[in-house]
Amino acid sequence: MKKISNYILIGVFAMTLFGCEKYLDVNTDPNNPQDVTADFILPAAQTSVAITMGNSYFNLGGFWSQYYTQSPTASQYKKMEAYNLTTDFFDREWSEAYAGGLNDLEIIRTKSTASGDHGYYLIATLLQAYTFQMLADLYDDIPFFDALKGVSDGTLNPKFDNGADIYPVLLERIDEAMNRYLDADDAGMEPGDRDLIYGGDLDQWLSFGNTLKLKMYMRMSYTSMANPTAVQDLLTAGNFITADAAITQFGDESGKRNPFYDVQYDFLSGVNQRASNTLFGYLEANEDPRLGAIYNESSAGGQKGHPQGDYDNLDVKGTDLSEPNISATTPVFLMTLTERDFLIAEAEVRYNAGANAQAAYESGIANSLLLHGIAGADSVYQAGGAYEYAVTGDVETDIGQIMMQKWVAMANVNNLEGFFEMNRTHYPPLSSAPKGTEGAVGELTTSFASVLPEGKTPKRLFLPDVEIQRNSSGVTQVSNIYTKVWWDKK
Amino acid sequence: MKKLVLKITGFLCVMLLFTSTVFAQSRTITGTVVDSESQPVIGAVVTEMGTSNGTVTGSDGSFSITSSSGDVKLKISYVGFTTQTINVGSQTNLSVKMSSDESLSEVVVTAAGVKRASRSVGYALSSVSAKEITEGGDRSVLNGMQGKVAGVTINSASSNPGASTRIVIRGVQSISQGNQPLIVIDGVPMTNSSVNSTSLNGGFDFGNGLNAVNPDDIENIQILKGSSASALYGSRAANGVVLITTKKGSTSSKGKKAIGVDVGFDATYSTPLRLPNLQNTYGQGWSGNHWLDENGSWGPIMDGKKRVFGQEVDNSQLLAPYSPLEDNVRDFFELGTNYRTHVGVNGGGENNSFYASYSNVSQDGIIPTDADQYTRNTVAFRGSQNFGKLTVDGSINLAMTNSQFVPSGQQENSVYRNILDIPRNMSVIDMANYKDKFYNINDYFTPYGVTNPYWALNENKNDFSSNKFFGGLTAKMDIMGDLKGVYSFGYDIENHDISRYEAIAKPVGQNEDVKNDGFVSEQTIGNQQFNHDFKLLWNKDVNKLINIDLIGGLNFNERSSTSLFSSVSALDIAGFYNLSNSPSTPSVDRNDNMRRLFGLYGVASASYKDYLYLNVSARNDWSSTLPQENNSFFYPAANLSFVFTDVVSGLPSWMGMGKFRVGYGSSGNDAPIYVINSIYTQASHSMPFRSFSYPLATGTNAFTAGNRIKNPDLQPEITKELEIGTDLMFFDNRVGLEFTYYDRVTEGQILQVPVSPGSGSSNFYANAATVENKGIELALSYKVFRNDNGFNWAISGNYTRNRNEVLDLDDALDRVALGGLSTTAYYAMQGMPIGVFEGNTYKYSPDGKVVVDESGVPVVGDEKEIYGNSQRDYIIGLKNSFSYKQFSLGILVDIRKGGLMYSNTKSMLSWTGHAVTTTYNDRKPFIVPNSVIEDGVDENGDPVYVENTTPVAPGVMHEYHTADARDRQFVFDKSYTKLREVNLTYRLPSSMLESMPFAGASVSIIGRNLLLWTPVENQFIDPEVTTFGNGNQAEFGEFVANPTARSFGFSLKFNF
């Protein structure tokens, strides 16, 4: 009897063990997919980039390009105005950029390489290059060669690389992706509407690649890496974008709006950003029709700007000052026709003796007006207009004219790009007036609230805490934000 | 699995070895010893009187004793029962029923549901009786245990009826996973998760699973604190086990049916226990001025003269004396009511028994309206039937709960926060008519992010309705000889429905920023748990002195849950609350999960005579949440009990029983569900304050790579614990002392380890921390007077001291945030106890002086300061029990010393100038002592400091009281002493009962949480409250939490 009972026991145990592995195989998350194809990732990657560039960095660019200033009756962005940022200020955006958009784009690049979907590869590579460039311009040193490899090869502490080392590789990647697409017999899956930016129009993406290259070459124009030949080739080919690269798919619902609007206007009730006298005064002096498009009238009525950084002046109420005009459905622009035109104009002046500069300049202003929905105002750049292009033949003078207009054109469109170009070309120039005094019309004002040493303005951001605290590759925090980035040589 | 097969083979070999022992033939007397409920008594000592012959009963209560004598007298003794002497005569098979000895009721339920004599157990035992659980009249079983058990910390989260209660045994050991013990009811694990939780922005706490248990259904609660006691319950017992034994019917002899009926009714009433101490000198205003739109009392000294207040409406304005309304906050609250009714019926025949009960709890808390009410109906049925060799027990419990919860916190719909923002000269209760022209949301006096509390209270609603079914089925079978088989099945099925809405509020005019587009959500949550246990029990007397007891078992446990949440964040038609009433796309979230555990366990117990007991157990678990290669974990445990007073001779006469015990055990814990793999998620992008979420407004959906790196090397957490202790009885059981020291280390804690975003990911789960808890537990009882018919006085007390330390933290984790705020952070840090507070402090000049700004207010320093931690120094529960004839009186005091907590109530009241602390220096200008101000820089660019001569002026007094540099003031000592329970009972004497239909009746006056003492720095809140849920974060503190309540009333009990 005892033997029988032992056999029963063994039997029960054996049966149990046999089924054990299967019984326990229930740890696959049913609430989230384990894998998805590139077409389901692409829109997320595109909006991730747009949400990062079109929100906090857009806001930063707004203050630092002197389009906006902090309202005296609110306080959220005093630290931006004072150039007194803490090192954790952009942790969220950095994480979203790397662990969001850039990583998703890297996954698309890997997946589309394996599947032969060269259109997807092209879009992902170009958008990733675009994002890396913006980050490199903002931080000077960023993880690049080792970046985005946490999942694929376990690199958890990517070393930091300088923008000067990154740019050439980005240019190579752009060329490689464009050639791969052009050389392929079968481009694979059609992105179609999954491409939120160009609706799957891959010819536009090829043009985007060329325009991005032009933008990068112009950024290098004051460095030893300037490459006139490459720029001349691009100008000769002339294959640049013919439509704005933008995310337009916003609707007026929480979490689905233009991100700047959702946060600044819907959540924070629009109490912080007000028209800076620097841009406002320039537009006003030139009777620029865009003034009413870039700024909304104040809630008290009428248009009024405020000195840059003068938030301690409590005599002025925020309700009396003009506000940036961004709506729930305003697109997030990554690259615009007006930007393209000013890049061409600058390139023509620099490397082509100004051949087609005027046409490009005028087209740039025309496209800027169009973007703001303004018709019939072409006289501003025509003969006798405030912005009439005077061909002087002096490179510096001509570039000055172009860059002033580019600065205006980037307002509310790509604020951060406005900031980069301002640092690169020194247009508008910084007023020599001491802190607390406004610059002349067309000059930048030293922010009244600046905590930086005299004559210094911000040129970059601190490296985010979220990265340097977790990354043991030996990176150290930069000592200040007024040290120039690598291409800032003028 | 190969390893396991070897283990099993070994296990079987051991069994075979012991079965082969053979006895000499002689007269054999067999028998079974059962208790009054016919449950086997294990470990009872059976001795043949006049000889040294003896044995102890086995796991089924049976014994077998061989005697050569003809006239055998057996003495059967067992701690907790009256010793019996039996003349065996010619009988060879005895059935012995033992009755419990009240003074020594120390039968304990140990792991695997086996009853044993406490003397045989080698670890600290704590039990709470039915009487103790119910005597305070609280609806919650856990609340009824507060202050009564050494080593156990119980906190009720809030006074909201139906809110959850947190219980932690022997300290917090897990940094990221739960620290709640496993709840086992009659051998079946129960789901005890909380439904939702509170947060600084409000939130809802609809209680935990154990709230569904009617305290009157409980016979006894045992707490298995250490790993050596709880290991058999598997990985889920890593935080200890609360073993609940419910009331059963009792079988009665010879076909006579006996029915017993218990009826109880309690009515208690509650009032706020602790409200903040507010100043009554300064009235509405700011910076010393009397401004009518301020939600603060920084105005002038109230002079009692009539002044207008509020907004001008229809060219009129309210008028009232500018004088303090000392009780304007207290007046808001109402008398809470709490009614409990219980009916229980028990009975049984020769082979069966049953118990059935119904209970109702109906509670309406201290906040006006029924926005804080709780209703619970429970029905329980348990039955047992014996079919010869087979006994079947079954139980069905149903609990139906309905409750409403008043959210607190910082949000605009927080009723309490809105109340605390009302100036000291303004009446709160006058605002009850929130549609009145002066008090409606358009014309409410202040636009600063607050609104009429009565609007928030009446116009927003939440409703929680829940059904919980739980119970089990157990079949016990005598397989052959000494071998028994037990199969038990347990189930626990919960269904919760939560509906919420917030009204549309679109004020115009000055209050336009206090807007709400309206909100509706519907949520259903289902939790299921199924548990199967197969056990084989085998018991054998090896010889007269040695008894061997073996248990082997298999356990399957499956827990699954589903939840469906849907909400719309804007409404169209006012007053119509339905998901369809919205222009916005509903947000829908469905979540399913399932985890399984398979365990194999064995226990071997051996006793030598009745004074040396060795208990060895081992369990191996396989969990679905761990990587398949590492999903097996083994943990052994052993304990030894030595009743030295039975062996050591020459002890003094006052020395009664003395036992020394030592136990070592380990237990394991698996990983959170679904964390080991990488996934994709529906895309959502992080933004400040908001997130950008898919699908897009244009209908496009997308997925993004989840930011978690998979970790196939994840190992289970392992806890190892050593405990030693002694249980002593002196002076004829008049004084009892139990002492335990334990040292518990949890290694390989599973934590989310952040990684550099540059890697493209954000985190992975890893074994990343080691935490130690060590401490002592002391339980003392002293019967000061002991007279059966006279005055009795007994003191019982318990003392707990736990020391917690994070021994090791992965290099990638500088610290682990446990919640907290951006200003005052709350961390686990290496080398410190869990729950470190870190926050702002003063900026100091190089010579150590406080730096102030131009207005004389201290400037915040760049470096943060560690304030301390939230761990208690010690906890004492002290109960005095008196009885005289028919009267008895019990008084329980609960003392908790040490530990810090954060109080946002203080912070908020400091900002509004309502806190009594804001009258510092009579609000006259003062210079911060020993302060300096920055005055340019020296040649090295370093700041130069000069003595500060600027006093803090009335205009910036509020800035001084809330200066970031002074954030330390909002983290204070959370020590308290509470008069936890008072119970005065009168039992009707039997002489009176003769003329009445009942067998017993009593009437009691009861009170709970009657008085509270706190250190002087805490003028604001009951430190027991938390706003931060049920996890580790709960110890952080409170964020404008609703006040707790005291309750008092009466209780009637009858039995028939």
Choose one word for the global shape of chain A. Answer: globular
Number of DSSP strand runs of chain B: 57
| Backbone shape of chain B | globular
Please report the distance between the alpha carbons of the first and last residues of chain A. 98 Å
Rounded average pLDDT of chain B: 87
Notable characteristics:
heterodimer; A: 490 residues; two-stranded antiparallel sheet; 18 helices; 8 strands; 48% helix; B: mainly beta; 22-stranded antiparallel barrel; 5-stranded mixed beta sheet; globular; disordered N terminus
Can you describe what's shown?
The complex is a heterodimer of chains A (490) and B (1056). With 490 residues, chain A is mostly helical. Chain A contains 18 helices and eight strands. Chain A has helices at 2-24, 38-53, 56-64, 78-81, 91-115, 118-139, 150-153, 163-183, 202-219, 228-237, 259-267, 277-285, 291-294, 337-351, 357-371, 395-410, 415-425, 465-468; strands spanning 68-70, 141-143, 160-162, 245-247, 273-275, 295-296, 323-324, 332-335. In chain A, the strands form four sheets. Chain A has a two-stranded antiparallel ribbon. With 1056 residues, chain B is mainly β. Chain B has a 22-stranded antiparallel beta barrel. Chain B has a five-stranded mixed sheet with strand order 10-17-18-13-14. Chain B has a four-stranded antiparallel sheet with strand order 3-2-5-6, with no helix packed on it. In chain B, β51 (931-937) and β52 (943-947) form a beta hairpin. The two termini of chain B are 57 Å apart. Mean pLDDT of chain B is 87; it is low at 1-25.
